């Protein structure tokens, strides 16, 4: 996994509540058997004026000039500013894959759906929860000032605005450790293989009906 | 010992180890695998030279991409076909307890197949790379959707890295009125608490109305827990649970059955157990539900009207309503009963089980599709549901009514196969999500129960099935 430490990134504001993972990456792109290449189809139905299908040359498709991701001032944004319940719906990890592939490293919102929130951490993408009034302030500042950037420091657990105002954010120690180190979580878990085996052996004794000859 | 909730019991019995910050390794008993969210996980295992930790925990089927007609012609879309063939190849090389491939008689939507095979049992942890895994909580199991990285993690380690959620009790008091289904209860709950109301919680559904639901109704309810924001929903074990499980292919038998039942009967919240949040509804207040917007919380009942954004003071909510009405092609204050439908979809992991098809057939019997309705699709949840429905003659009722009787699969719930809405088409759907584009780009979805969907199919608009 990609490590995350500190980022100073351009911010793109997506002013909608309840953005679901179907909107983040529509179903037709889930037919891929790869993890990469989803970026051009991020928010496909909002981003383009035509209907997108896998295999199309996205560079020649008509862009929706009213969709924020297409505004020239937000080109190259790495921080997505969003509203409540971001990432609700389907568990598709293609959603964080698409955000990552597009170049986003941080999503800030008042709340996230649980599965999406969890999926982000597995891909070096940092989801940050902030109170609604802070998010409101960031939206106002971002929309008012072209080139608006935020500094996100994972070690310090802070977001800092261009004027120097800082906001703290929470993250569990485990997730922070994995993100900072870009660690392979499976490898970490397998360090406890003996504990898993002994748990499993006890379970096989107490609930033998859960085990079969495959 | 302190009183525990059902969720507390399920959680604590699966903790392998716990870190200081509360992060645990949670042991997983059952891993359901389908073609869409697994290829990258299998690829990850191959690249790392890893295998499955426990082959007999894996039960798999192909459901999202499979067509629901012309099975003799195979899967025409080459990208869909590649994904299904990739699953075939991965199961062949990694192994599984059971695999129900495309066209197998046991094939079906993963959340229909698991319970009907007895692959879902009370007391289990059940995961799948699919948010509607919450369905399996109907059996007193801890079940939730996971992402593909977690699919790979469970394959390699039999564990998830997880943190415990908070406990929520949603209690539906009193007997369920006639004509009110698990779907109506689910939508009424989401209407009350919102699509983020359950975020951070595991929800237990209780109360007299829930106890009176069949296992199918409980599965519908738990299926929709995710639409209330909760990764997992659950219902305590009772006689209905045990009766449903008995005799299924992967259910225990003999002395093991007796031991299992003794354990399963402990799977309920203790008297006085603490819930962090309690929500109560009166069953007698619940009428047939219909969604009007682009989020499951945008719901009203059959006597309701489309809301007026002018009456909303919160600017974010007001914007959401305006955007939803524009997308849905609806005018504020329109009575729900006046909304005409073009297409009806009866199916999905929410409502494609035998009881759902019986309820739809009871409405379709002796009636015919309204001339204004272009198509009524009936898609059974699995090959076994299809066979059962045909044994009961339900297929003939649907066909006589002008409905289409299809092969099993996820179908128009998410439109990954060829079954999809055209832009602007309006659908009465028994599925779980009315998001923009969910059933096809530009398609407009109204979520309803199977009986309400069938009634819309024969009348051309929403009607109160209690008065049909």
Quick summary of this structure?
Chain A is of the alpha/beta class.
Written overview of the protein:
The complex is a heterodimer of chains A (214) and B (468). Chain A has 214 residues and is α/β, with parallel strands linked by helices. In chain A, 31% of the residues lie in helices and 14% in strands. Chain A contains eight helices and seven strands; from the N terminus they run βααβαβαβαβββααα. Chain A has helices at 21-24, 44-47, 94-102, 114-121, 132-144, 173-181, 185-190, 193-206, and strands spanning 6-13, 79-81, 106-109, 126-129, 149-153, 158-160, 166-168. Chain A has a seven-stranded mixed β-sheet. In chain B, helix 12 runs parallel beside helix 15 (450-459). The mean pLDDT of chain B is 97. Chains A and B meet through helix 4, helix 7 and helix 8 of A and helix 2, helix 3, helix 5, helix 10 and helix 11 of B.
């Amino acid at each position: 996994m990609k490590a995350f430490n500190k980022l100073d990134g351009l911010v793109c504001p997506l002013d909608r509540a309840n953005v679901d993972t179907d909107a983040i990456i529509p179903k037709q792109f889930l037919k891929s058997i790869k993890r990469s290449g989803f970026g051009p189809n991020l928010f496909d139905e909002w981003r383009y004026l035509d209907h997108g299908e896998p295999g199309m040359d996205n560079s020649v498709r008509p862009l929706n000039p009213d969709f924020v991701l297409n505004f020239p001032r937000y080109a190259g944004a790495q921080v997505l500013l969003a509203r409540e319940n971001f990432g609700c719906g389907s568990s598709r990890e293609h959603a964080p894959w698409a955000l990552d592939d597009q170049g986003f490293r941080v999503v800030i919102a008042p709340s996230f759906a649980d599965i999406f929130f969890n999926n982000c951490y597995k891909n070096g993408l940092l989801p940050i929860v902030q109170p609604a009034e802070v998010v409101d302030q960031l939206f106002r500042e971002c929309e008012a000032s072209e080139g608006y950037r935020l500094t996100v420091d994972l070690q310090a657990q802070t977001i800092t605005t261009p004027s120097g105002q800082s906001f703290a954010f929470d993250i569990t120690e485990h997730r922070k450790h994995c993100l900072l180190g870009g660690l392979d979580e499976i490898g970490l878990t397998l360090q406890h293989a003996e504990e898993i085996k002994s748990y499993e052996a006890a379970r096989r004794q107490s609930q033998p009906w859960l085990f079969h000859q495959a | 010992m302190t009183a525990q909730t059902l969720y507390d019991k399920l959680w604590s019995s699966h903790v392998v180890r716990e870190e200081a910050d509360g992060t645990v390794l949670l042991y997983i008993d059952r891993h359901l695998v389908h073609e869409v969210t697994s290829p990258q996980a299998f690829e990850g295992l191959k690249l790392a030279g890893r295998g499955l930790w426990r082959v007999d925990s894996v039960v798999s089927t192909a459901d999202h991409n499979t067509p629901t007609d012309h099975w003799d012609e195979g899967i025409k879309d080459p990208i869909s076909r590649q994904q299904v063939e990739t699953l075939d190849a991965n199961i062949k090389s990694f192994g599984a307890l059971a695999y129900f491939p495309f066209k197998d008689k046991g094939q079906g939507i993963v959340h229909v197949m698991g319970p009907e095979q007895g692959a879902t049992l009370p007391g289990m942890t059940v995961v799948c790379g699919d948010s509607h895994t919450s369905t399996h909580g109907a059996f007193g199991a801890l079940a939730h959707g996971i992402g593909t990285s977690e699919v790979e993690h469970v394959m390699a380690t039999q564990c998830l890295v997880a943190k415990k959620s908070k406990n929520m009790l949603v209690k539906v008091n009193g007997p369920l009125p006639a004509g009110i289904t698990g779907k109506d209860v689910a939508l009424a709950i989401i209407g009350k608490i919102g699509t983020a109301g359950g975020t951070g919680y595991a929800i237990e559904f209780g109360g007299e109305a829930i106890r009176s639901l069949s296992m199918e109704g409980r599965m519908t309810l738990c299926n929709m827990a995710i639409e209330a924001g909760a990764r997992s929903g659950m219902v305590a074990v009772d006689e209905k649970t045990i009766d449903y499980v008995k005799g299924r292919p992967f259910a225990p038998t003999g002395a093991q059955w007796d031991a299992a039942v003794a354990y399963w009967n402990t799977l309920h919240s203790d008297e006085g157990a603490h819930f962090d949040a309690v929500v109560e509804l009166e069953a007698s207040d619940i009428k047939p539900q219909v969604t009007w917007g682009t989020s499951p919380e945008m719901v009203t009942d059959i006597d309701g009207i489309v809301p007026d954004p002018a009456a909303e003071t919160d600017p974010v909510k007001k914007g959401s309503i305006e955007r939803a009405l524009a997308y849905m092609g609806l005018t504020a204050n329109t009575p729900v009963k006046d909304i005409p439908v073009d297409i009806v979809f009866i199916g999905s992991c929410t409502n494609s089980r035998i009881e759902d098809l019986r309820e739809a057939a009871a409405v379709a019997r002796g009636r015919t599709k309204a001339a204004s309705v272009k198509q009524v699709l009936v898609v059974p949840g699995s090959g076994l549901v299809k066979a059962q429905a045909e044994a009961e003659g339900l297929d003939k009722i649907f066909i006589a009514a002008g409905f289409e009787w299809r092969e099993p699969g996820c179908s128009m719930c998410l439109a990954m196969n060829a079954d999809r809405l055209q832009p602007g088409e309006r659908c009465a759907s028994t599925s779980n999500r009315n998001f923009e584009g969910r059933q096809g780009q530009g398609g407009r979805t109204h979520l309803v129960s199977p009986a309400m969907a069938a009634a819309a199919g024969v009348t051309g608009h929403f009607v109160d099935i209690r008065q049909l």
